[in-house]
Design a protein that fits this description.
Low-confidence stretches: none
Structural class: alpha+beta
Order of helices and strands: HEEEHHHH
Number of helices: 5
Number of strands: 3
Protein name: CRP-like cAMP-binding protein
Strand order of the largest sheet: 1-3-2
Helix content: 40-55%
Largest sheet: 3 strands, antiparallel
Shape: elongated
Organism: Kitasatospora paracochleata
């Protein structure tokens, strides 16, 4: 039997998996929480989704890349507000301790992050 990870479906979804931090596994190795994808009615690849905490880490890394690789703590106030707005759009604050994690990454207080969020809602 061929390697499921070499199947055309696995190749097609690889960029998506990389973007969200998921991994492809053989269907026989799938856990209950994995999503098994089928091709012509047969399971060909299972997708293992990341934990939410690692998703927040990936979002923060994405923000660093979006601001030319500069450490988030070195951004000016307007840029930090933009980071908070982008993270809010992506659901970063639905993760437990999301505000604390983002505040730490930005080098500001939780109170400041909440102020940025409140300002965004009013604006």
């Amino acid at each position: 039997m061929s390697n499921a990870l070499e199947h055309p479906l696995a190749a097609a979804i690889k960029p998506l998996l990389d973007a969200v931090g998921a991994t492809a596994v053989e269907p026989a190795e799938a856990k209950v929480e994995d999503v098994v994808l089928e091709w012509d009615g047969a399971p060909v690849v299972a997708v293992r989704l990341p934990h939410l905490s690692s998703a927040l880490d990936r979002l923060l890394a994405e923000m660093t890349r979006a601001f030319d690789g500069r450490p988030l703590t070195e951004l000016d106030r307007a840029e930090k507000q933009r980071v908070v707005a982008l993270l809010e759009e992506r659901g970063a604050f639905t993760v437990r301790h999301g505000v604390e994690t983002v505040a730490s990454a930005l080098g500001v207080s939780r109170f400041t992050v909440y102020n940025y969020l409140n300002r965004q809602e009013k604006g």
